[in-house]
Structure prediction request, 233 residues.
Amino acid sequence: MAPFKMQGDGIHLSDLDTAEVDSTRYQTVFQTFGEDMGDTPDDWYRFYLDPRTKLVDVAQLSPAQQKAFYINLYNAGMLQAVLERYPIKSVKSIGLIPFSIFKKDYTQQGERSLSLDDIEKGILLQKFPDPRIHFAVNCASVSCPPLRAEPYRGAQLEAQLEEQTRLFAASDQAARGDASKRRTAYSELFKWYASDFGVSQPALFLNRYRSQPLPTEYDVIWIDYDWSLNQSK
Prediction:
């Protein structure tokens, strides 16, 4: 599963009229691809911004449904923030201060305004301490784990999180080994959120999800996080 592409030559975004589904009206955005996008010209996406989100009574949902709800809410909030300011080079450029996108209130749940940090760090990681969440929430950046092509659902959440983690663990975004120097470069996610992963060495976590284990005796260095907006190659 490739990362979702937000920007690039041949990618076109356009606002559409609202659409009604099951008696609810949605604001919609349409994404298409030009002929210079390789084998993707027939692909397209329609994004629906759901006005009912702020009306959901999360307390009535099961723990798995709540967890899925907040992951989806985070990803929708990030997507909306990017689309409202597209084209941009990086989410870092949204707002007057770098990374203020994560601090600004972008969405609501009930009467409460929420920032992306509120959702990820204040709700998800506090109420549902699961390191796999880091591979499910998407920051629309090159080094970020890929955005799943379907919403998270309570009934399928465990399988979805397992697949997301395995996909990331197998990628060179997660780890890049150098046998000649006996060292492995890891995603900075494992540095920033070391306590969430609960291991002294990233390989100890990643090897649970990899078919080819990483050496645990190698030195650890970090891959500089690329905050460029996801774009086509």
Q: What stands out?
A: Residues 11-168 form one domain. Helices lie at 63-85, 116-127, 157-169, 189-192, 194-197, 202-206.
